From TrEMBL:
The keyword Oxidoreductase does not apply. The gene is CHST9. It is found in: Golgi apparatus membrane. One of its GO terms (biological process) is sulfur compound metabolic process. The keyword Transcription does not apply. GO terms for molecular function: dermatan 4-sulfotransferase activity; sulfotransferase activity. This is Carbohydrate sulfotransferase. Belongs to the sulfotransferase 2 family. The lineage of its organism: Eukaryota, Metazoa, Chordata, Craniata, Vertebrata. Keywords: Carbohydrate metabolism, Glycoprotein, Golgi apparatus, Membrane, Signal-anchor, Transferase, Transmembrane, Transmembrane helix. InterPro entries: Carb_sulfotrans_8-10, Sulfotransferase. It comes from the Eukaryota. Its EC number is 2.8.2.-.
Length: 363
């Protein structure tokens, strides 16, 4: 029912819009790449923008090969029996609004009643802490390093968050992920543990990832991503840039991000949250935001009965002398892009903006 991907790409580049599709629909379709894998959010995104009938959505062939996963029929209340003191009243009120907003969003736009995908795949980014029955979906550039430190302390693997190095956090393999359990273990934890996700303004998260991975020496991102990006998108690149992959410009990075034929695949640091944590398939109990990270995190620790002395760390994990990525910093980076590139970048994260009720940027 939709034009093939090549038609979508050419239509976006040429400015010609196929009959029956608006410019925004083509932009979203052309930017929503999944590297050959089925995208269970495809139906949600298309239903948001293209007005397909229910029968057309149900009959789309990619869904036929997947196991069924059902959106929970009710929004379960948070267990607040372990929360003490009145200082959490405002935080709790905000939390309830976020939970309700996401649930109503998913219920409204998931008109298929059920989406089908591999269960093991949708839980592959979720970390497990069994002592306090916590499931945490990792979204990079949203305080994930410090969150994993907290989980290690909760699990008795360390006595203090300050004693855990960056390498131990990311390469030590001290924490188990939910996909390492058998199906019974996965279902039991999904149904009984407190499930948390922390998110951030999508473009702010994107710029933060770019600054971290491409503006500092990096033995992985420069040779793997940098070399491929410079080779494809930089005209007359010099030998040093081609050999090292260092010095990728933000505009080149965005060209890679929006390219339907990327020279190298996606990465979790700039992948959409909708494809990392599947918020409409997993009924998250707690939705924290980077903008209120410390108070959200400490309220969550109260909810799960963490030791009173354990607080969410304030320190920045790496590049501590750098200015934090803020809305103003993002605006400076966006100036390097054309108006069309800014719009397409926003379209790329369209679902994330909608799901978590972030204000659309001025692009």
């Amino acid at each position: 029912m939709l034009p093939p991907p090549e038609t979508q790409r050419k239509a976006t580049q040429s400015g010609h819009i196929p009959p029956g599709l608006g410019r925004q629909e083509v932009a979203i379709m052309s930017s929503r790449q999944w590297q050959g894998k089925a995208d269970p959010f495809g139906a949600v995104a298309v239903s948001l923008v293209s007005g397909l009938s229910d029968q057309q959505k149900i009959s789309k062939p990619p869904f036929s090969q997947f196991k069924e996963v059902y959106l929970p029929p009710v929004l379960h209340p948070l267990n607040k029996t372990l929360v003490t003191g009145d200082q959490w009243k405002d935080v709790d009120s905000i939390q309830e609004r976020r939970r309700s907003f996401l649930y109503e969003f998913c219920k409204k736009y998931n008109s298929m009643k059920k989406l089908r995908t591999h269960l093991v795949h949708i839980v592959s980014r979720i970390y497990v802490e069994d002592r306090h029955k916590v499931l945490y979906c990792e979204v990079p550039k949203v305080g994930c390093s410090n969150w994993k430190r907290v989980l290690m302390v909760l699990n008795g693997l360390a006595t203090s968050v300050r004693n855990i190095s960056h390498d131990d956090v990311h390469y030590g393999k001290h924490l188990r992920k939910l996909d390492s359990y058998d199906l019974k273990g996965i279902y039991t934890r999904l149904n009984t543990y407190t499930k948390a996700i922390f998110v951030r303004d999508p473009l702010e998260r994107l710029v933060s990832a770019f600054r971290d991975k491409f503006e500092h020496p990096n033995s992985y991102y420069h040779p793997v991503f940098g070399k491929a990006i410079i080779k494809k998108y930089r005209h007359n690149a010099n030998k040093e840039a081609l050999e090292t992959g260092s010095g990728v410009k933000f505009k080149e990075f965005i060209q890679y991000l929006l390219d339907s034929h990327r020279p190298v695949g996606m990465d979790i640091h700039w992948e959409q949250v909708s494809k990392l944590c599947y918020p409409c398939l997993i009924n998250y109990d707690f939705i924290g935001k980077f903008e209120t990270l410390e108070e959200d995190a400490n309220y969550f620790l109260q909810l799960v009965g963490a030791p009173a002395e354990l607080k969410f760390p304030r320190f920045k994990d790496r590049h501590s002398s750098d200015e934090r990525t803020s809305a103003e910093v993002v605006r400076q980076y966006l100036k390097e892009l054309s108006k069309e590139e800014r719009q397409l970048t926003y379209d790329f994260y369209y679902l994330d903006y909608l799901m978590f009720n972030y204000t659309s940027p001025t692009v």
